[in-house]
Write a structure and sequence with these properties.
Layout: H1 30-46, E1 50-52, E2 62-65, H2 69-72, E3 80-90, E4 94-95, E5 117-118, E6 120-126, E7 132-138, H3 139-152, H4 163-186
Antiparallel strand pairs: 1-2, 2-3, 3-6, 4-5, 6-7
């Protein structure tokens, strides 16, 4: 069984770093497979639809997803691993996630917001055998892909909000963190 990796939480500086690509000849290595396995285990543990390497302190170009399981946690798991991903095309039409909007495992401050994303994206990525794939994603899957890819570029979803909404997110995060620190202090 893989280990659950600790989540990197905003405002940790590691969330703003741009990742490095893996050397193609290393993609099938035990190290890369181990990272992917631990990231998948962590994504399921934290109940996310996706998880990017920067969110668990790994400075390499990898993210994992499961587009179906997260919706109900009862569907069979359908994990995906994307090594050295690159968005190579995006539609002009836009969409937002229904309901409360996007949230983020690295921004766990009870804050969600609508984020405008491309309706479809074309992603190039590698598998563990070093084979390059090109796949188009639409709708919800495209939103998850764009969200995770942003992490690899050192950006969180709050960066895509209007200045007013971003300020609201940051104020709420600080308030939640301050309350949590008081509660931790009271428990000692």
């Amino acid at each position: 069984m893989s280990e659950i990796m600790p989540m990197v939480i905003w405002p940790d500086i590691r969330l703003t770093e741009i990742v490095a690509q893996f050397a193609v000849e290393d993609l099938g290595s035990p190290m890369v497979r181990g990272i992917a396995d631990s990231m998948l285990e962590s994504m399921y543990h934290y109940r996310g639809a996706g998880l990017a390497a920067t969110q668990v302190g790994v400075p390499f170009a990898i993210f994992v997803t499961d587009f179906t399981w997260q919706a109900s946690h009862e569907n069979p798991k359908s994990p995906r691993v994307f090594l050295n991903p690159m968005i190579v095309n995006a539609s002009e039409d836009a969409q937002q996630l229904a309901g409360k909007g996007e949230g983020c495992l690295s921004f766990p401050y009870q804050f969600n917001a609508p984020v405008t994303r491309h309706h479809s994206v074309t992603l190039e990525f590698y598998d563990f055998d070093g084979e390059k794939h090109t796949e188009e994603f639409e709708g919800y899957e495209a939103i998850v892909i764009q969200h995770e890819f942003d992490h690899l570029l050192g950006s969180l979803f709050i960066e895509r909000l209007s200045p007013l909404k971003k300020d609201m997110a940051i104020r709420k995060a600080k308030k939640v963190r301050k309350r949590a620190m008081r509660e931790l202090g009271a428990g000692q």
